[in-house]
Specification:
elongated; about 40% helix; alpha+beta
Length: about 80
């Protein structure tokens, strides 16, 4: 799903979130592309970040903070990786 709630209001967004959670409970794998980090942390088990067309890494959302993921997006490195 690529930005499934980008043009939706609050009520419609809740419907989509509920649908994603239901599909997740049923064991269906979903790719969710979103700029909304809150949605990512609310809905996803894992988060993959790409920067400039290159893979930065994949992390489990329960193992990182939103700041960690923002660091991946901005700095292009995994949390805890040494600075160059």
């Amino acid at each position: 799903m690529d930005e499934p709630t980008a043009a939706l209001g609050v009520a419609e967004t809740k419907v989509i979130h509920d649908l994603i959670r239901q599909l997740k409970r049923e064991g269906l794998g979903i790719f969710l592309i979103s700029h909304d980090i809150h949605d990512v942390f609310d809905l996803a088990d894992r988060c993959t970040v790409m920067k400039n067309g290159k893979l930065v890494g994949t992390v489990r959302t329960k193992d990182v903070t939103q700041d960690d993921v923002l660091g991946m997006i901005i700095l292009g490195k995994l949390p805890g990786a040494p600075a160059h």
